[in-house]
Design a protein that fits this description.
The structure is a homodimer. The first copy, chain A, is of the alpha+beta class. Chain A is built from three helices and five strands.
Chain lengths: ~120, ~120
């Protein structure tokens, strides 16, 4: 499967999912699948989160609390789930506030081995 | 209930919970309840996460994706759930990697109105 097919499958199978982006730590997106006209918003979100993830990774290293696997964020309007793919890439899934957060986490986790294989 | 009683109740009711800290954005903890001899680790964790949460809040404001409510982080060794209490404070709950993450999120969310009342 291509990156886009893997991302599309996750977005299609999660209620309330808006889009998913495979992203490099250098802030450049590799591929994405985004519903409707939200592409610019999700791309901006992914870039903005790149610096946050770097910061969190640094903190995790300082604290020696193991290998970072997942980061999630909820606001009153949206949910973001981020899963580390490898040293260079992460995948970000954006959901509406009433989206299925549990399924989002589960399917994003399951997509990681597929993304690694496709890289 | 006192802060400590509220935090103790959450930690006691979640399988795998290690400790909870009520923390100011200035990096000073107000109160905590931490199991056994892990006090220094959890305090350090809370201080380290203060800068991350500030960073995330700033990103959320930039992106105009609503009011930040919750941040969670999973490593292969631990889980952290953070819930915003108000403009000045947040509450952090640390769990082991096999702890009950769903219940942690639920009970931490429920503790927020109690903490607001006690502040």
């Amino acid at each position: 499967m291509s990156f886009r097919e893997i991302l599309k499958k996750v977005v299609s199978d999660v209620d309330g999912a808006i889009g998913a982006v495979l992203m490099g730590y250098d802030g450049i997106s590799i591929d994405d699948f985004i519903q409707e006209d939200l592409s610019d918003d999700i791309q901006l979100l992914a870039v903005e989160y790149t610096s946050i993830i770097k910061e969190v990774r640094r903190a995790v290293e300082v604290l020696k609390t193991g290998q970072m696997e997942e980061l999630s964020l909820a606001t009153d309007q949206s949910r973001i789930v981020i899963r580390i793919v490898n040293e260079d890439f992460f995948v970000l899934l954006a959901l509406s506030a009433d989206g299925n957060f549990g399924k989002a986490r589960y399917l994003l986790k399951r997509s990681v081995p597929l993304l690694r294989e496709a890289l």
